[in-house]
Specification:
By secondary structure, the chain is α+β, with helices and mostly antiparallel strands. It has 16 helices and 22 strands. The protein folds into 3 domains: 210 residues, Rossmann fold, CATH 3.40.50; 74 residues, Uridine Diphospho-n-acetylenolpyruvylglucosamine Reductase, domain 3 (2-Layer Sandwich); 122 residues, no CATH class. The strands form 5 sheets. Strands 3-2-1-4-6-5 form a 6-stranded mixed β-sheet, with helices on both faces. A 5-stranded antiparallel β-sheet has the order 7-8-11-10-9. Strands 12-16-19-20-21 form a 5-stranded antiparallel β-sheet, with no helix packed on it. A hairpin with a 4-residue loop joins strand 17 and strand 18.
């Protein structure tokens, strides 16, 4: 089996000379076997090995026993050992996660923290785990990518045991006199994975296909290869559709087959979320429905993500909740406003010549009824535009000026009731702007901080 694992490492180019490798070790057969094999390769690859163990505080004395055993393994192999202890049950409740989800999140957080930017993370998934994962994904609903199973290598995570079975691992431990401990919760069929491992797979092996584990591994290899091909095609298509960062042309998108369309949509969220498997088929279909919707429609997605139809494009972004702001502006009071990123001064006097001005505009003071406020937009806001001989709603103005929806609620406006005098970086009301006939001026200055 050692040769088989070494071949897997070479096949997927998992290790390089001088690598720092963090190994997740629970104390079970899989991870103990992995730690032993990696230490056998330590000299050949000049590896720096760190064993990481997570105590989930769920199994009392058994958990403490496992922790102590991993410490002893570190001494035996001459490895550094790092122990992380978490109250997983408490954290799961606080975050609204299952125990499995919280445990996995905390494990990988510890692995990444220990590995740093350049280290590799070795985990002990095997061919049986791959079979279980494929079946879990199939029953929950998945596509080609999900049926590609567990990747042998992803980013800096490597899985040297991915082509060997659990039986081979246990045999290796017996041959090499490796002690290990079995988590009793693995034999309780209350979790989905346990039900699949303890009941479903044995039934399939007994009644349908005695070699189901290897059959599904071969299937996963085919699916993974096809997924890589489609992913490459989708990336090329995305580049053709993208008219500016995270904004794709609707007509170009519609020119592709729906299979590629769905992948283009998922690629739109790549920079915002590492957990794209949480973007479901129905989420993607909802985003695609924007191709037939009017400008301004939005689709909300998990993890605070959003897709917005804007004119002839779909724009991908993270939802941004803008807190309302409203400040009454006092004449002759210079004050800094973070929403403007500058000092604002309304005054009847002309500004000093050496002032660091960013912007200035003058109003007809006789037309103004105080107080004036600086705030974000509100429903019913309007601004007078001479060119159309009347006023226009801010909503319509923002649409016509193609102001991105995600920015509209954060743009400061200077207003008098629902009548807007000035919209930052966009427009000044023609009704209140000073003219040649103006007698009393009110100057507005934006000054550097």
């Amino acid at each position: 089996m050692f040769t088989k694992v070494k071949n897997t490492i070479e096949k997927f180019n998992m290790l390089s000379k001088g690598d720092k490798v963090v190994i997740g070790v629970s104390g079970g057969a899989d991870s103990v076997c992995l730690a032993h094999i990696m230490n056998c390769l330590k000299a050949e690859y000049d590896l720096e090995i760190i064993l990481v163990h997570i105590n989930h505080q769920l199994r009392g004395a058994d958990a403490d026993r496992d922790e102590a055993y991993v410490m002893s393994l570190g001494e035996k192999f001459g490895n550094t050992v790092k122990i992380f202890s978490y109250d997983v049950e408490k954290i799961a409740k606080e975050k609204g996660l299952t125990l499995e989800e919280a445990g996995r999140e905390l494990r990988y957080e510890a692995f990444y923290k220990t590995a740093g930017k350049d280290g590799k993370i070795a985990v002990a998934h095997n061919i049986n785990d791959n079979c279980e994962t494929m079946l879990m994904r199939f029953f929950r609903g998945t596509g080609i990518k999900g049926l590609g199973g567990i990747n042998p290598i992803r980013d800096n995570i490597i899985r040297p045991l991915i082509e060997v079975s659990r039986a081979e691992i246990e045999g290796y431990c017996a041959e090499n006199n490796l002690e290990y401990y079995t988590d009793y919760t693995n034999n309780i069929d209350i979790y989905t994975r346990n039900k699949i491992r303890l009941k479903l797979i044995p039934f399939i092996e007994r009644e349908l296909n005695p070699n189901i584990v290897n059959t599904l591994y071969r299937t996963s290899e085919i699916m993974a290869a096809e997924d890589r091909y489609l992913s490459d095609e989708a990336r090329r298509a995305y580049a053709q559709c993208e008219v500016s960062p995270k904004r794709i042309d609707v007509e170009k998108l519609k020119s592709y087959d729906p299979v590629i369309q769905r992948r283009i949509i998922r690629l739109g969220f790549v920079d915002f979320s590492a957990d794209l498997h949480d973007i479901s088929y129905s989420n993607v279909e909802n985003v695609l429905s924007l191709t037939d919707k009017e400008s301004g429609r939005t689709i909300e997605l998990p993890h605070g993500l959003r897709a917005v139809r804007e004119q002839s494009t779909i724009y991908f972004c993270r939802s941004r909740v803008q807190k309302p702001f409203c400040y009454e502006i006092n004449i002759d009071e210079k004050k800094y406003y973070k929403e403007l990123g500058a000092y604002l001064l309304l005054t009847h006097k002309k500004c000093e010549k050496n002032a660091k001005l960013l912007y200035t505009i003058s109003f007809d003071y006789d037309k103004i009824v105080l107080p004036l406020v600086l705030r974000n937009r509100l429903p019913g806001d309007r601004i007078y535009i001479a060119g159309i001989g009347g006023s226009k709603s801010l909503k319509k103005l923002f649409i016509d000026d193609k102001v991105p929806m995600v920015e509209r609620d954060s743009i400061p406006v200077l207003a008098m009731g629902s009548e807007v005098l000035w919209i930052s970086n966009i427009k000044t009301s023609d009704r209140y702007k000073a003219k040649d006939t103006t007698l009393n001026y009110l100057y507005m200055y934006l000054l550097e901080e």
